[in-house]
Amino acid sequence: xxxxxxxxxxxxxxxxxxxxxxxxxxxxxxxGEAVALVGANGSGKSTLLRLLHGLQPPSSGRxxxxxxxxxxxxxxxxxxxxxxxxxxVALALWLRGARWTDAKVQxxxxxxxxxxxxxxxxxxxxxxxxxxQRLALARAWALQPQVLLLDEPTASLDxxxxxxxxxxxxxxxxxxxxxxxxxxxxxxxxxxxQVKRLASRVLYLERGRLLADLPVRExxxxxxxxxxxxxxxxxxxxxxx
Length: 241
Ligand SMILES: Nc1ncnc2c1ncn2[C@@H]1O[C@H](COP(=O)(O)OP(=O)(O)OP(=O)(O)O)[C@@H](O)[C@H]1O
Hints:
- This is Amino acid ABC transporter ATP-binding protein (PAAT family).
- Keywords: ATP-binding, Cell membrane, Membrane, Nucleotide-binding, Transport.
- Residues 7-232 form the ABC transporter domain.
- GO terms for molecular function: ATP binding; ATP hydrolysis activity.
- By secondary structure, the protein is of the alpha/beta class.
- The chain is 37% helix and 24% strand.
- Strands 5-6-7-3-8-9 form a six-stranded mixed β-sheet, with helices on both faces. A three-stranded antiparallel β-sheet has the order 2-1-4, covered by helices on one side.
- Strand 8 (201-206) and strand 9 (209-215) form a beta hairpin.
- The longest helix has 16 residues, at 159-174.
- The chain is globular.
- The N and C termini lie far apart (39 Å).
- The structure holds adenosine-5'-triphosphate.
- Adenosine-5'-triphosphate binds next to strand 2 and helix 1.
- Residues 16-17, 19, 21, 39, 41-47, 188 line the site of adenosine-5'-triphosphate (ATP).
């Protein structure tokens, strides 16, 4: 683990209108970690991801991150342009300064990486939900991010597509980034099996408060979690109605 964290939050809080979406939060995330954000609806997972991605400023406190790092965020439903799958990826590269001919070559490589090379000329919005999420991953991967932020990336997919997307995320985590550093992953998920498969560390949020920050194995130890959050322990056991 590098000494300098990729992200450091110091008493970072977010207020959205009348709602305290996140209470003062202290947190460090290091390169190569795979961090799952877990908690009931409205517990603040998306807000925390938006805070890390710079889409949401803190209302108080500080968020610092390593300068010049490349990061990409994926949402539950990917935002795709009304053009072909290949152009969706190539345009992202072109906007980053690549020449159009190079962008198309790199985009094709990214589509191959996610098994969508056969769909390159299809209109992106006519792809299936799972294919669209793979396309969004290809677009993110093409940009060679050091940090990948995912907001429930498989929530709207069927079990087969879920597994495919999850396998790709796991493969990305095996590789190194262009800068030679390991990829850092932060993802929100309601799928506890997925959390077990992908995460090394779990942050459990309850009504905007970070109640548990545990290595994945300890998080799934109900007695351990019971100490910090009885509600969390019930949540993990699937007994929370
Ligand atoms: N634009 C907004 N204006 C006011 N309140 C908001 C806004 N967006 C989110 N909230 C509130 O902030 C709190 C945290 O929401 P957030 O979306 O971060 O939770 P979440 O854990 O991601 O939920 P879910 O699992 O349903 O996606 C909730 O109480 C939510 O209602």
